[in-house]
Amino acid sequence: MFPDALSVLVAIDDCTKANGCLQILPGSQKCGRIEHGAVAGQTGADLKRVAAIQERLPLMYVEMKKGDALFFHSNVLHQSDENNSPGKRWVLIMAYNRASNSPVDYLADPFPKYTPLEKVPNSAIKNCTNLSDFSGKMFLNPLDDKTVKADVSR
């Protein structure tokens, strides 16, 4: 309901212009709600609105060394180019939302309603014996994910 969210991008590999690093439009989080829809098989912001914003805000390439992290408001417009380099560009991106800020229609929304995490002792990692059975675990199924177009030919 409210824009009380942030994202964190952590570089697993070096991210450069050459391998399609993240690009952001700093300040774009202040442009109000921007509708998203299908863009190139993914969920993306309205391209006409983005073009108008790009005329007013500078594009910033976020080059990072592996291990670097970028914290940014979840409404900052961001994208990355295709990686046409011979090297990889792996990143982790996590989105955080306030517990009190559940999606309006969390049953239809790809983002879940807040559920508290069950804290376990640090020893739980070393004591884990279930290393390959994922039954009963909730993972995102790309065929059910409304934010990407799954390639079912693979």
UniProtKB/TrEMBL annotation:
Protein name: Phytanoyl-CoA dioxygenase
Superkingdom per UniProt: Eukaryota
Listed cofactors: Fe cation
Annotated organism of origin: Tegillarca granosa (Malaysian cockle)
InterPro entries tied to this protein: Phytyl_CoA_dOase-like
Pfam families (UniProt xref): PhyH
